[in-house]
Amino acid sequence: MGKAIDQIRDLGVPSMQGVRPAMPTSLTLVVAAVILYLARDVFLPIAVALLLTFALAPVVAALRRIGLPRAFAVISTALITFTIIGIFSLVVALQVAELAKNLPAYQSNIVTKVKELKEAGAENGIIDRIGNVIERINREIDRPTTETPTGVEAPKRDPLLVEIYSRDNPIQVLTNIIAPLVGPVAMAGLVVVVVIFMLLEREDLRDRFIRLAGFGDLHRTTEGLQDAGTRVGHYLLMQLIVNTAYGLPVAVGLWFIGIPNAVLWGLLAIVLRFVPYIGPIIAMVLPLFLSVAVDSGWSMLLWTAGLFVAMELVINNVVEPMLYGSKTGLSPLAIIVSAIFWAWIWGPVGLILSTPLTVCLVVLGKYVPQFEFLQVLFGSDPVLAPHARLYQRLLAGDPDEATDQAEEILEDEYLVDYYRAVAIPALALAEQDRARGVMSDEQRLRVAASGLALVSNLEDIAIEESQDDELENEDEKGEAASQPIPDGEGMTILCVGGRGEIDDVSAAMLAQVLRAEGASATTLNFQEIEPANIRKLQTDAVDAIIVCFLNQDSIKHARFVVRRLKRVNTRARVGIVIWDSSADDAAGQRKPDTSKEQVPGADFVASDMTSAAIEALTKRPSLPLAPPGRTKARRRLVPQHAQ
C-alpha cells in the first residue's frame, strides 16, 4: 500500500508496556561505564583501533579481491593510512608553533578594535568595562620603573620573589622535550600495532566473538556484526569525505582572504567536524577571532564569516544529501547525549569517537533483547506505529500535532487509506481502554473532542480530493484503495455513531470520506438514535444511513438500531459498520468476520473504511424489514440442542 500501511505491517500493534532494562542489565551498564572511565588508558587505544579497523576493512577486502596477499594488503593499507595521519599531525604541530610565535604581533590590532567598540558602545556598557580593564592592564605592563625622589619615603612594597635559574645540561633538556611526547607516541604506536593485528586476524576475531556472544543464534549474531561494521564503516568513510570537502575549500578561501595559517584552520575543520554539532562552531570561531586580530578593519571578519556560512550551506544542502549513506540511525538528541557521555569518559578523543561508539550500542540494542532499550533511546527509527502515535496525541488532547502527522502521511496516501490504516485503529485502542475500564470519562471526552478536531482540520484535504477527478494523479499520491469507490454525486448519506462519543468520531471520519467522493454526508451523534429521540429524525431525503461501532460486541445492539431506523424510513438503505481494527486487517490482509447474517435486516455490514464507503455509495434498493411474527416463528422451529 503506502508508507503508513507499511509501517503498521512492520511494527504491528505495539505493546503499551514500555521497554525497560532489567536490573542486572542496568547494573551491567553502570559497572561498564565505571570500568571504561577508570581504565581509559587501556580501552581508549583499543576503541580507536577498533573503529579504524571498521574503516579500513573494506579497503583491505578490495585489495584482496584483486589478488593481493592478506599480509601485503593489510600492511600497505595501514602504512598509507598512518603515514597520512602522521603527516597531518606534523603539519598541524608546525602550524600551531608558527601561530604561537606570531600572536604577540597582533596585540595592537586587538587593542584598537576594543577601543572602537568602546566608543561605539554605551558609556556604562559591558564593552566599556572590558575596554577599561584592558587599558589598565596595558598601562601596568608598559609603565617604566622610576626612582623615588630624594627626601620622599618610598612606599613599602612586598619583597620580590627571586628565582635562581641554572643552566641545564643537554641530557636534561632532551629529557624535558621527549618526556611529554612519550605518552602520545606510545599510544599511537599501540594503535598501529592493534589495527594491523585486527585486520590480519579479522575473521578469527569474528568467529571468537560469535562463539562468546551468540553461538546459540548464529544468524542474529552474524547479522548484527555485519550491520555494525556497515554502519560504522560507512559513517567514518562518508564523514571523512564530507569533512575533506569542507576543510579544503575553507583552507583555500582563508588563504585568499589573508588569514594567517590557513592550512591549520582547514585541517582543524576536517577533524572538528567529527565532533557533533559543536565541532563546526569551534572550527569557525578560531579563524573569526584571528581575523579580528590581523585586520585593522572589519572587512576580513565579514569575508571569513561569509566563507563559513556559505560552506555550511553547501555541505548541509548539497554534499550530505548526495552522501545519504553517512546516516547512522541515531536521533539528534542521542548524538548530543552520547557526545557528552563519551567526552566525560574519555575526554576530547571520546568526543570525536562518540558517534561511531553509540552506533555500536544501537546495533547491540537491535540484536540483543536485553539491550533493546538502547535502540529505543538512541535510535532514529519510530518506536510506535502511526496509529499508536495518533492515539497518544488524541489522549493528550493535542489535535494539532495529530494533524501534522496526518498531513505528512497524506502526502502519499488518500484520505480513505489514512483513516482505514491509522485513524480507525487509533480509535480502536481508545475503545479497548474504555472497555477494560482504564479510561476515565474526562479522557474519553478529550479523545472524542480531539478526534473531531482532527477531522475538522483535514476537511480541506477532503475538499481537494473531491475536486481532483483525474486518474493520472494515482501515481503521484501512491496506490489507491484496493477497490474503486463509486462516485457519490447526488447522494445524501447520514453517518451516525453507535454507542458512544468515540463511535461518533469514526462516523465523522466516514462522512468526510464520503464527502471527498462527492456525496452529501452529514453526521449525527449516538444520542440521536436512542429510542426516545429516533422518531424525531428527519430522514426523508436520505439515501443511506450508516451506524458505526468500534466495540466488537455491539452486534446485538446493532440489530435493534437497524429495526428502529427501518421503521423510521423504509426507503433508505441502513448499513452497519463494526470496525475491525486488527493490524493485519488495517494492512488489508484479513477478511472481516462480521456478515449480514449476524445483523438481520441490514442492507450491508462492513468492517473497514473502504468497504463501508463502497457499500454506502452503491445504489441498490433497500431490503424490506422482516415482520416480527415471522422472525419469532422461525426461531421457535430451531431445536434447543441445535442452539
Q: Any overview of this molecule?
A:
The longest helix is centred in the middle third of the chain and has 40 residues, at 218-257. A five-stranded parallel sheet has the order 2-1-3-4-5, sandwiched between helices. The protein has helices spanning 3-11, 23-38, 40-65, 70-102, 107-120, 126-142, 170-200, 202-213, 218-257, 262-272, 278-294, 299-322, 332-367, 372-378, 386-395, 399-410, 415-435, 441-457, 459-467, 474-477, 501-516, 555-568, 583-586, 609-617, 628-636, and strands at residues 492-497, 520-524, 544-549, 573-578, 604-606. Helix 5 (107-120) runs antiparallel to helix 6 (126-142), helix 10 (262-272) packs antiparallel against helix 11 and helix 15 packs antiparallel against helix 16. With 643 residues, it is mainly α. The model is unreliable at 7-17, 470-482, 583-593 and 629-638 (pLDDT under 50).
